[in-house]
Amino acid sequence: MLKSTKGMLSKAVVSMLILSSVSFYGMSSSINVSAAHRTNSHKNKPVISNQTKQQPVKPKAGDVITVSSFDELKAAVASATSGQTIQIAANTLDCTSQLVLDKIDSNITIEAAAGYTPVLDFTSFRTAAQKLSPKQTGDGYVGVRITGGAYTIKGLIIEKAYDNGILIKPNFNAANPKDTTNVGKPDNNTITDCVFRYNGDAGLQISGSKGLEKAGLDVRPNNTKVTGCVSYRNFDILTSGGNADGFAAKLYLGKGTVFSHCVSAENSDDAWDSFGVDTADVTYDHCVAYHCGDASVFTGAYDKANNLPVDNDLTIGKCSGNGNGFKMGSGSSKYGAQTSGIRNLTDCVAANNMSKGFDENNGAGTINLTNGMGFGNVKGDYVLDLMKAGTFVNAQAFKVKGLKQPQGGTVSIVDASKQAAITAEFNTAISKMREELRENKIPSYMNFSFWN
């Protein structure tokens, strides 16, 4: 299922927003919850007043700015200039509003300080948002909103946003579609070694804007590089799990989107979704799509049945997501023609998803694949018959059922005597990832020996 539009707030809700001291970025609301109860005890770091007004950080070019609270982080983001690095020296930040990154060609890095794995916990923001808009989310409720370019985000855990964990997307003023003053330019952003979990939509989404497209403006995100990231147990409870992919590179995507050493696991909808991307190319290198779309995960039944620890952070609810692994395209829709770009995959695994493993989703185009492994996907490990094979080497599956090979490509069936060892190696990697996530660590990269 596709989330076609972000919800518009009613007049009553807007009135509440005004009365609740809401700040606006473009036309997207961003709620600010008072943080007056927090104190700043760290020396030699930017200090934020306990009053509503924040004191600006005034760094010099090339400086490393160290912060230890969400207020300090927002102030540093607002004041930082090209070439500067913001380091977070705290293991948890209480995120009370949306974090907006809107500088064009910023060349700004936001990363974990040495010895820390910062968790950007958006629970406070989500709680306030749920009171104001209990039936729908939207761009204004995303955790980290990137409309600018050349940002690098590294070593962070982003969790419990009401909508996406991170959204890379230009800004659109729905009230004045001809207003292009604050559109942004979301190109050349890099996300490295991050975790997106327990968010209310896709963990990380990269999209253009339907409104801008209708206005004749092509502001599609280009050259997004995502490396070493894990997207885990994201669930859009308000739409029954039909939107929360692990990684959504969809809807008016630009060129040069690359995922490397990423894992999408146990999200309510698809692991990866590239619906409505026209002729855009997407690359997946050493990526894993695991066990997405399983409704029993979001009741707690799956963990109980598999003797896993109780996940107290999990959103509990009714889930009916699609459950594809690498969903690489779409047919003709209101978002454009049938997709027809190139999909490049190297050393990629799709396992135990509730629908298809490697899925064209009625899209066409060319698939280049070297080393692919599909097993345990309920409706077929490879469903690619509308795509053409370019380089197509060592594509493997455990079963013939549901198999649809690309034109000019061949999928081989793994000998039954080898399947248990492959499954065991894979499950060991998944177990290690789960343990690292429970310990608030950035999971290790997965590399497998079963390609030969």
Automatic annotation (TrEMBL):
Keywords: Secreted, Signal. The keyword Signal applies. InterPro entries: PbH1, Pectin_lyas_fold, Pectin_lyase_fold/virulence, Polysaccharide_Lyase_9. Its main location: secreted. One of its GO terms (molecular function) is carbon-oxygen lyase activity, acting on polysaccharides. GO terms for cellular component: extracellular region. The keyword Signal applies. It is found in: Secreted. It comes from the Bacteria. This is Uncharacterized protein.
